[in-house]
Amino acid sequence: MTQLTDLRKELADSLSGLPLNTYTHIPGRLALPAAFVMAGSPYIEQGQTFGEKLVRFQVVLATQTGDNQSETSALDELIEAAQAALEVDEWVVELVSAPYAQSSNNAEFLATEITVTTLVTFN
Q1: Residues 6+ apart with CB under 8 A from 69
Q2: What are residue 59's DSSP bridge partners?
Q3: How far apart are CA 55 and CA 60, in angstroms?
């Protein structure tokens, strides 16, 4: 495995205590509620010291389908729980995007993206 793959797994594992399905990739079929990890932008950039790189990921949180009020409330709860879990595992939470409507498996649900970073020295 690559270091980037290992980081994706660590990131997904950080969310394993939350009541959702976690994926280390963009799934072909999404089981809701869910979180999946994808590359952020910029993905890799120079860190603060020689040889160190800043790696950025997007964690997409998606609620179970339901009425607007329950989806909004569920997403707020997921955001707060995810931020806390990520920070405990020393991921730097840069930002949380505004919620947006997303479709998958012929269903529409509410989602948001959490941008996280970590410093890495690649082998």
Answers
A1: none
A2: 37, 114
A3: 16
Question: CB under 8 Å to 52, separation ≥6 — which residues?
Answer: 46, 119, 120, 121
Domains for the chain: give ranges and CATH numbers.
3-121 (3.30.2000)
Q: Which residue has the tokens 């890799």?
A: 44
pLDDT tens digits along 26-61: 998 899 999 999 999 999 999 888 889 999 999 999
Q: Report the C-alpha gap between 36 and 59 in whole angstroms.
A: 6
pLDDT tens column, 80-96: 999 999 999 999 999 99
Coil, helix or strand at residue 10: helix
Q: Which two tokens stand for residue 112?
A: 């948001």
Overall pTM > 0.85: yes
Which residues, at least 6 apart from 23, have a Cβ–Cβ distance to it below 8 Å? 12, 30, 34, 35, 36, 37
